[in-house]
């Protein structure tokens, strides 16, 4: 029913111009870009998605969009390049010419009644600012992280100069006054050592963002109102907080991985608020020893659980072949394991009581939108910042401070799913969920911000 209503809304539109969108070819970045595309399509804009051959979207799921692929040669070697920052830098180096040629061709073929109004590109694809300037086309940036995580990246030169990134004790609990409420260990996780590549990537993104015409954020004002003024001061261009994107339209169509619907049928057989949902997203990896610690903790917790074990998530294993027999039996008694799950449906299910997550921004937002408290195991990038805000600012979850240790995991599960502390978290999450619903209603902050974005694009 929800999908039918969404599709009906997509048809109720009056064409007002064409937008060119270019996502970073990674699941966590493709999803919000395609969600944004649907939102803007519903407001009357025609949409062209420019994409790479690597991790290309499923075109059949978007018959209302036009798709343009840039040459295969442009990303040769991208999947095998070690380090996230190095991958991003590689894309920014090799995509300029094919992307420029693609946009130039689209501009030359455009008509007066289907005029191309602007580019909307991922902030990490900062080379697109140069293309926009050469072709005299306005560029709007989409940043797929939280405001807080983006601010921490902005502080990179300061934190580097003050020595936070060279602290020997990567488990330091010392506070970072420049980035409250983060701890030194959060900073060391955020800026995993990737040499000069990391600084180069961040500098490129910041320069490209400052030169853009505007920024679109997948967040809402009430959630990050303490950070927004700082962002607006450091980036004096229009900022549009129109999220959460996925609450406008379902995200399932943009998943690059096949979803196992048995997750929902299994949840249907469980009692309300009885299940722990475990998923570390589409990128994070874990060691075998960590996997076994997780498994024993889940078995010993005495709680029901739905566990997403993505093929390849365990270093050195294809899937579950390294599971010792005794441990597999213990896990099977209470849990259900799938390779991938329809996460939004899982989090919205009445049986789901808690989400143990890596704390990527999409997952964090989805949990907030469904009022589900969190247990946080951040790995890199924006995850440590998101996790610290979940625990210390919004107070709707716990961070596993010492990595994947079964005793600590068991305690965290009890605290969130059984103890009074968890009930209080759920109440605060419920308040945030209500704020989400209000911000999207007519007159709400995200509703008004979207109106502002549409008017801004039409004024370009």
Descriptive account of the structure:
With 460 residues, the protein is of the alpha/beta class. It folds into two domains: 2-152 and 192-253 and 439-459, Rossmann fold (3-Layer(aba) Sandwich), CATH 3.40.50.2000; 257-436, Rossmann fold (3-Layer(aba) Sandwich). It has 19 helices and 13 strands. The chain has helices at 2-11, 27-42, 84-94, 96-109, 127-134, 147-154, 156-161, 184-190, 196-210, 228-234, 262-268, 288-300, 325-334, 343-348, 361-369, 383-393, 406-417, 420-440, 445-459; strands at 17-22, 45-51, 66-69, 116-122, 139-143, 214-217, 239-241, 275-279, 304-308, 335-338, 352-357, 374-376, 397-399. The strands form two sheets. A seven-stranded parallel beta sheet has the order 3-2-1-4-5-6-7, with helices on both faces. Strand 12 (374-376), helix 16 and strand 13 (397-399) form a beta-alpha-beta unit. Helix 3 crosses helix 9 and helix 12 (288-300) crosses helix 13. The longest helix is centred in the C-terminal third of the chain and has 21 residues, at 420-440. The protein is globular, with a radius of gyration of 22 Å. The chain starts with a helix and ends with a helix.
């Amino acid at each position: 029913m929800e999908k039918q209503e969404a599709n009906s809304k997509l048809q109720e539109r009056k064409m007002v111009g064409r937008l060119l969108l270019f996502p970073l070819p990674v699941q966590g970045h493709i999803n919000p870009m395609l969600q944004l595309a649907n939102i803007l399509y519903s407001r009357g804009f025609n949409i062209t998605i420019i994409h790479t051959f690597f991790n290309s979207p499923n075109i059949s799921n978007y018959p209302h969009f036009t798709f343009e692929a840039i040459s295969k040669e442009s990303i040769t070697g991208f999947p095998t390049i070690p380090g996230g920052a190095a991958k991003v830098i590689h894309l920014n180096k090799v995509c300029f010419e094919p992307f420029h040629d693609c946009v130039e061709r689209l501009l030359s073929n455009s008509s007066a009644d289907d005029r191309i109004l602007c580019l909307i590109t991922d902030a990490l694809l900062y080379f697109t600012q140069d293309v926009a300037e050469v072709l005299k086309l306005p560029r709007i940036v989409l940043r797929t992280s939280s405001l807080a995580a983006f601010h921490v990246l902005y502080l990179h030169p300061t934190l580097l100069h003050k020595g936070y990134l060279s602290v020997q004790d990567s488990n330091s609990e010392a506070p970072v006054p420049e980035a409250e409420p983060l701890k030194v260990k959060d900073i060391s996780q955020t800026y995993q050592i990737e040499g000069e590549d990391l600084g180069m990537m961040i500098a490129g993104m910041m320069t490209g963002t400052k030169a853009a015409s505007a920024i679109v954020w997948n967040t809402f004002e009430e959630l990050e109102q303490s950070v927004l003024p700082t962002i607006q001061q450091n980036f004096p261009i229009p900022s549009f907080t129109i999220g959460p994107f996925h609450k406008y339209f379902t995200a399932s169509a943009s998943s690059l991985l096949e979803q196992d619907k048995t997750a929902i049928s299994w949840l249907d057989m469980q009692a309300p608020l009885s299940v722990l949902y475990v998923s570390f997203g589409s990128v994070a990896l874990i060691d075998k020893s960590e996997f076994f610690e997780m498994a024993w903790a889940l078995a010993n917790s005495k709680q029901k659980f739905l566990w997403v074990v993505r093929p390849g998530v365990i270093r050195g294993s294809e899937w579950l072949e390294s599971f010792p027999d005794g441990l597999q039996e213990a896990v099977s008694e209470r849990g259900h394991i799938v390779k991938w799950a329809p996460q939004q449906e899982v989090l919205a299910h009445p049986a789901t009581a808690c989400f143990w997550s890596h704390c990527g921004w999409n997952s964090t937002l989805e949990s907030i939108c469904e009022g589900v408290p969190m247990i946080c195991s951040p790995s890199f990038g924006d995850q440590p910042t998101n996790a610290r805000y979940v625990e210390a600012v919004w107070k709707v979850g716990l961070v596993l401070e010492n990595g994947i240790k079964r005793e600590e995991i068991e305690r965290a599960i009890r605290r969130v799913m059984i103890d009074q502390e968890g009930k209080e978290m759920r109440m605060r999450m419920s308040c945030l969920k209500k704020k989400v619903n209000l911000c999207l209603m007519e007159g709400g902050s995200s509703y008004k911000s979207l109106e502002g974005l549409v008017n801004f694009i039409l004024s370009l």
